[in-house]
Specification:
The chain is α+β, with helices and mostly antiparallel strands. The strands form two sheets. Strands 3, 4, 5 and 7 form a four-stranded antiparallel beta sheet that branches. The protein has a three-stranded antiparallel beta sheet with strand order 1-2-6, with no helix packed on it. The longest helix is centred in the first third of the chain and has 28 residues. The protein is elongated, with a radius of gyration of 26 Å. The termini are far apart. Bound molecules: heme C (HEC) (4 copies) and calcium ion (3 copies).
Amino acid sequence: MKRVSNYLGWSALWFGLMLWTCICLPVQAYERYSSCAGCHGNFTDSTSPKGTIFPSNNKHTMHRSSSYMDAECNLCHQSGDDDDPYIGSSNGTANNPGMGCIGCHLAEGLRAKHAEGGVASCGGCHSDGPPSPENVKPPYYDTADTKVKNPANDVKAANTNENWSVGDFLGLDNDGNGLYDLADFACGRYRILSATKEGNDVRITWETAGGRKDAVQAATDLGGSFADIGAATLIPGVGIVVTNRLEVGAATNATRFFRLRYAP
Ligand code: HEC
Ligand code: HEC
Ligand code: HEC
Ligand code: HEC
Ligand SMILES: [Ca+2]
Ligand SMILES: [Ca+2]
Ligand SMILES: [Ca+2]
């Protein structure tokens, strides 16, 4: 009898070990870069699900080279992890704690971006509250350990703020709402600059940002109902854009009020 119960004891233990192996290993694998590589390729290569073009066709170079982001090695690395750094920890430096990738890629926003881009799998293991808005500076930004500065690009220039890839002048969509940098309300300026009479017409000039879709609305009194003047316009370009629209016949009204509507 003693032998049998021992045998049962061991098989229960082995069964337990097998469950541990089957369930826990894949979960642990998502702690490190290798779990991202299935879609993003090696960090040292050119793969991008977004179609981004990296300097020297290399994500590692874009992040670490002094010609680009110039990120200190230990923002991402810790001793002995060269082939597979952690996403959420690193050695850190004298200026920054060891947060790993999330020192720049805020975790909730990064996962929201994946959901927005059609990758539902992150939500299977993580359940997040609302991400911080686009204008919240991630902890590593604008510190001595990197040239990455502002979560929004306000100039159309290479190698500034958050843009270090080739050609697009955009950085990250930090909160994953589909709007990059100044096209995001949290960062962009969005206001009517003037409404000027041109004969019977009125030209409305407003400040907005490339990538946003705006409609101008008008009403005859402030409490009245505002209606779009013509179709909403997709604002071309990157960064701050000043644009205008003419409302034909607007000046034939005794008074006219204008406002902007965001029309995604
Ligand atoms: C932005 C985060 C980040 C920074 C900064 C960074 N690394 Fe890496 N590093 C990685 C990742 C991720 C990998 C895994 C590469 C892969 O996918 O194969 C890696 C891989 C490596 C490797 C192994 C592959 C190879 O190229 O030989 C070495 C060595 C390495 N890093 C050294 C450095 C050094 C030295 C620095 C600083 C000058 C640095 N890294 C800065 C993220 C980073
Ligand atoms: C199932 C495939 C898949 C996996 C796994 C994956 N990604 Fe992505 N990732 C994507 C896609 C697709 C996009 C582009 C989303 C878009 O542009 O709409 C993206 C975008 C990004 C971006 C750009 C964010 C921005 O603001 O534009 C970063 C950074 C990123 N991923 C990092 C990671 C990291 C770190 C991991 C591992 C923890 C990871 N990804 C795992 C598919 C994946
Ligand atoms: C199989 C389960 C699983 C999936 C799927 C998964 N993760 Fe994770 N992830 C984990 C675990 C476990 C950790 C490490 C424990 C921790 O720090 O929360 C982690 C850690 C992280 C971290 C750093 C810790 C933090 O602050 O949240 C980020 C960022 C992250 N994952 C992003 C992603 C993204 C992006 C995806 C989708 C592409 C994804 N994860 C998919 C299980 C998963
Ligand atoms: C110092 C800040 C910083 C750190 C640390 C950092 N990143 Fe980035 N990363 C960025 C910025 C900024 C971009 C966007 C550059 C651009 O598109 O112009 C980016 C882009 C990326 C992209 C390219 C997405 C695409 O396809 O366009 C990936 C993948 C990525 N990071 C993964 C990581 C991983 C993995 C780590 C940690 C090992 C990490 N990053 C650490 C700032 C950082
Ligand atoms: Ca860019
Ligand atoms: Ca955004
Ligand atoms: Ca941004």
